[in-house]
Every structure is written in structure tokens, then in C-alpha cells.
Fold this sequence. Notes:
The protein is of the alpha/beta class and 345 residues long.
Amino acid sequence: xxxxxxxxxxxxxxxxxxxxxxxxxxxxxxxxxxxxxxxxxxxxxxxxxxxxxxxxxxxxxxxxxxxxxxxxxxxxxxxxxxxxxxxxxxxxxxxxxxxxxxxxxxxxxxxxxxxxxxxxxxxxxxxxxxxxxxxxxxxxxxxxxxxxxxxxxxxxxxxxxxxxxxxxxxxxxxxxxxxxxxxxxxxxxxxxxxxxxxxxxxxxxxxxxxxxxxxxxxxxxxxxxxxxxxxxxxxxxxxxxxxxxxxxxxxxxxxxxxxxxxxxxxxxxxxxxxxxxxxxxxxxxxxxxxxxxxxxxxxxxxxxxxxxxxxxxxxxxxxxxxxxxxxxxxxxxxxxxxxxxxxxx
Length: 345
Ligand code: SAM
């Protein structure tokens, strides 16, 4: 695709604001661009299922994302499945970097990846206009890492990817680690040291009932308080102020100011009241919550010939109905029909 000047849509009006019926302003869109993945992380996938849903053409994602941006979205995170597997990714990032928010500024562009292909793609992604990446790593010990991903050699490959991303300037660089009791909870202290050595922000994430198989129980979740207490015993922590109200992570710095850890605690300290997100699946369905029981077929309407105005009205109505909160751990809780890898984490 040829480069040109930044694109501001004629439909964009600074007064537009995507809000839900609970008064939350939605400004963060997560877009899955494939549900294929080259890892089979034991807590995420069974290892038997492949991709389950179709992918759209890059131009189709661009048209759908543009509609959300016209309605006030300022941040777009590309995810999957594994987004680096997606053909056309660099074109997509290049075009997104040219889009303008309704205020006229560039979008904040991020991507979540397992890092396996990042060594070669970090530089081109930065050149295409990506601002930053989050890399998922569930252990800092090589053997544990590879037991989780079920891919030999993955630890070294991802480490090189992380270093390439930092060298390319895809910063601040975040590392996501999902902790599961009995699998990798012995990695907590090692990750704190890793954050300092590699100059990255490590985010521990509580495990949610979004796996393909049946693994989740309340007992397997390693709660925020336990993580903070354990790290604090080896390296003194200082809680850092939130940078924005919708920030999902509780952030902590180390006593000497080098490195950072954060904890995302959707299970034990849910942050639904400050949620600013909606999701678009790889097949073009809107999900207003990770735990939604219904999906909204935006792409189907586009294929049926609705124009941009009709599609924007549909997005506004759909977002209005965003769930107040999730019900993890409550009686009657139902897992959504799609697991994390097929929704887009
Ligand atoms: N393949 C990319 C990656 O590995 O980052 C993007 C997709 S992956 C589904 C996104 C994130 O979701 C990863 O950090 C992964 O660890 C996390 N994740 C997967 N299943 C989860 C679960 N049940 N609870 C919490 N996080 C989960």
C-alpha cells in the first residue's frame, strides 16, 4: 500500500464518544487478526484444536477499525492467536499509523505477541509505525518455559525477540506472565530479577477461566496479594500511582527505581468499573467483555451492504449494552463460547 498523508475521516467529530450504559467511556479497541497460534501453551490451548474462526482481509479490518476510531477509539492493540503469523501485518500497521483520532492525533498502536517471530519483525514493525509490544513469557527458566509453550528452543528465541524489540524502540516493553499454582508460581522472584536485568515491565496476570480445556479452579489462581508479598521479601517494592483510571495493572517499582512489575488481578480484584475496552474477533464480531455470552456480528452487517453510518450506529448500540462486570467464581458463572486464543487476549 502506498504511503500518503494521515487519514482523518469526514465522519469524525470531536463530540462523538463511545460510552456504555454504565457511564464508561470506551477508547481502547483490541483486534484479533488471526486465531492461529504457533505455541500450545498448556493453560491456553489443548494442543488438539487449530484455528476455529475465519480471518478477514487486511482492508476489511482497516474499514472496521476506522469506524471505531470515528467514534472516539484512541488506542488499538493487535492480538490473536499469534498476530505475527498474520500475512499483511506490516501493511495493516502502516495504515493504522496513518489514521487519525477524532482529536486529530495519531492512534496509540500496540501489539501483544508470544515473541517467537519478533527478532526479525521488531525493526520492520517499528518502521511501519507500531509504538510498542507486550510479549508473553510465562517463565524465566528455560525448561519451565518450554514445558509451557510445548515448543523446543522457544525460550532463547523469545528472549532474542524481547531484546530486538527493545533495540528497535518498541518501548516501554511489557512482559505478560500468567501465573498458575503448581505450574510456574516458582518463577515470581526470578521474574522480578528479570525485570531489572532486561529493563522491562513484567505484568503478572491472574489466570482466568478462558482456556480451551478445563483447568481453571479458584485454587490455581495466584492472587495479587501473594505475588506482592513474595517479591517484597526479596526485593523491596513501592506501589506506583496509576497513570490513567482505566489502567488494568497495579504497578510497583523497586526501592532503587530500576525496573517495574505490575499485577493484573481480574479475578481477586476485578477492575470492570474502569473498563475502557471492546474487542473485535478475527472474524469481525464485537465482544463487549471477555466473558460475554453474546457476540455482535459487525462484519456480517458490512458484508450485507450496510454503509458506514449504519455500521457506526450499530457499534454505538452494541457498546451501550456492555456488561457491567464479569462473574468469575460466582455460582452460575458460564465460560464464554470462545476461549482466549479465539477471542484475542
Ligand atoms: N499469541 C499472543 C501472545 O502470546 O501474547 C497473543 C494472544 S494470547 C491469547 C494473549 C495473552 O493472553 C497472553 O499473554 C496469554 O498469556 C494470555 N492468556 C491466555 N489465556 C489466559 C487465561 N486463561 N487467563 C489469563 N490470561 C490468559
